[in-house]
Amino acid sequence: MTDLNVSSWKAARDLLERPTYLVVIETIVLAVIFVISTTGNIFSCFIMYTSPRLRTWHNLLLLNVIFVDLMATVLCVPFGVVVLITGRWIFGNALCSMVAYVSCLLLTVSIITLAAISISRYFLITSLLRYMNVFRKQNITWMIILIWSFAALCAFPPFLGWGDFLFLPGNAMCFIFFGSNLFYAAVFTLLVIGLPVFVIIACFVRVKLLIEMNKRIKSFTSVTSIASEEIDSAKTLFSVVIMVLLCWFPILLLFLLAAVGIEMPRQASLMSTYSIFLPCALKPVIYFCMRRQFRTGFLAILNKLLPDVYKRRRRNRVAHKSIIRDCAVNRQTSRIHSERHDQFKLKHESAEFEETRNI
Q: Do residue 125 and residue 214 come from a single domain?
């Protein structure tokens, strides 16, 4: 590892001299991200394995994203938690290089896989026949292999002297550091960030226009050319993509500022670390909120893990619905009786009036 520059030494000093309350807050934030991400992605993998509608080869790319998020959380975040507690890197240079390489590899696989899923959603909505021809099981398997190979190749040059893997005190993690190798930085940024983001945005805009056109056609003719399940799947995907881009935009901005020599405060660098791993925790939440299959699978898991609590809540919910239904029936019965009473009273008064008039 190369020597740290002046700004890194300042960040390292600030990391060691933090007050206790700041140590607790920063550690808790990263630990919460770790717990939510690990739990959510494990549940997502289990749901995709147990659900017949999700356990298809069409969802292999989505499963790859979930697996990458789980691995990034388990293999990288615990080191950051330890650094935030101790204030320094205590695991040695070799492990620092491996953690930096793994984080770069997994994040590259994640963004490229999201781009591949965007292309698949685009083909699925625009041309089902083309989608079935291109995204077959064998082709998807080769896509995943190529994505991992390409990501491994993009993250490997620091081992050859192009850039380096360094512990960055401001980020509280080991990451890739390009240094003065601007050519590698430009190529890496273009291939790993620029091109996938361009593909994702282009597919998103095109699919959004097609969905809006489908809504207008449906409103006029009551006929839809796109299945509602496909629309929900596309909305879920692009919600995930938008969330990832919003979280990673500050990272790209800080990277560009650091490349031109602008010194950033330690808190800003630490926020970029949070932003890197925050999507890993938010993706399962989006799956649960926007996909009915994930909600059903999650409730089934709760039923197995907490049968008594789940059954008690279900009984209470059923009893509550029964009470509401009984109240509605009682109100309707009372209204019917009241109407009949009013009719009988009106009929009786009419009869009395007729008798009085006859007399």
A: yes
C-alpha distances out from residue 54 to 121, 252, 285, Å: 16, 34, 17
pTM equals 0.76
How many CA within 13 A on the CB side of residue 22?
Answer: 10
If asked whether residues 169 and 196 sit together in one domain, one would say: yes
The parent domain of residue 318 ranges over 308-358
- Which positions of the chain have pLDDT values less than 50? 1-4, 220-225
Residue 222 is predicted with a pLDDT of 43
298 and 340 assigned to the same domain: no
User: Using an 8 Å Cβ cutoff, are 93 and 44 in contact?
Assistant: no
- Domain count for the chain: 2
| Domain co-membership, 75 together with 141 | yes
